[in-house]
Amino acid sequence: MTGRLWRVLAALLVAGVAQASCDLSSGRVAGCVAPANEAALLDEFEKEPVLAVVPDGAKRDDGPRRIEACHRYGDHPTDTAVAVNYDLSRDLGPDEVRSLYDPVAADSGWAQLPPVAGTRVLRYCRDVLGQPGVLEIGWGDAHEPVPGEHVRARLSVVIRPADQDTFSQWAEVEAARAGGCRK
């Protein structure tokens, strides 16, 4: 073989190995399909003023963080989302969380969704780039799961597209649409 042919074969081999390692390291879940406009959705989600609301004494743990769909997270694929998480300096009650987030969400056009009994989650819905989007604010009190191990109170704000997989029951999707979000 000529030197030129060897160089071409070597380049193809290196390119093939690089492509194979990219595919293996991406962690994409087979059969999972991200929204066609995922980058644009993430850009829109990041602009939401509600992501800048910080409860008194809270410390931002991370975010806002862009999350692309279809990467393996435990046993499930990730959803397209933008999220921010806080460690809280104290436990927050539902009325206090609502008073912090309701006005900002409403000013940005988010419609409040019916609460899910027994949860500490506020849900809102709004059309984002022609499709329904969901804003979820969830929080938990500080607790001690094992004696001597203290877990701080936490709060998370997540914005993502609303689809059948976003909610635990199809009735919640219908509630989201009734709340102002339409496909």
Notes on the structure:
With 183 residues, the chain is an alpha+beta fold. The chain is 30% helix and 31% strand. The protein contains 4 helices and 10 strands. The strands form 3 sheets. It has a 6-stranded antiparallel β-sheet with strand order 1-4-10-7-6-5, with helices on one face. The longest helix is centred in the first third of the chain and has 23 residues, at 3-25. The radius of gyration is 21 Å and the shape is globular.
The average pLDDT value, as a whole number, equals 77
Low-confidence stretches: 1-25
Radius of gyration: 21 Å
Across the major sheet, the strand order is: 1-4-10-7-6-5
Strand content: 25-35%
Largest sheet: 6 strands, antiparallel
Tally of strands:
10
Distance between the termini: 60 Å
Task: Give the overall shape.
Answer: globular
Order of helices and strands: HHEEEEHEEEEEEH
Structural class estimated from helices and strands: alpha+beta
Can you give the helix content as a percent range? Answer: 25-40%
Count of distinct structural domains: 2
How many helical elements?
4
Write the layout of secondary structure elements.
Layout: H1 3-25, H2 38-46, E1 59-67, E2 72-73, E3 76-77, E4 81-88, H3 94-107, E5 111-112, E6 121-128, E7 131-140, E8 143-146, E9 149-151, E10 153-161, H4 170-178
Antiparallel strand pairs: 1-4, 2-3, 4-10, 5-6, 6-7, 7-10, 8-9
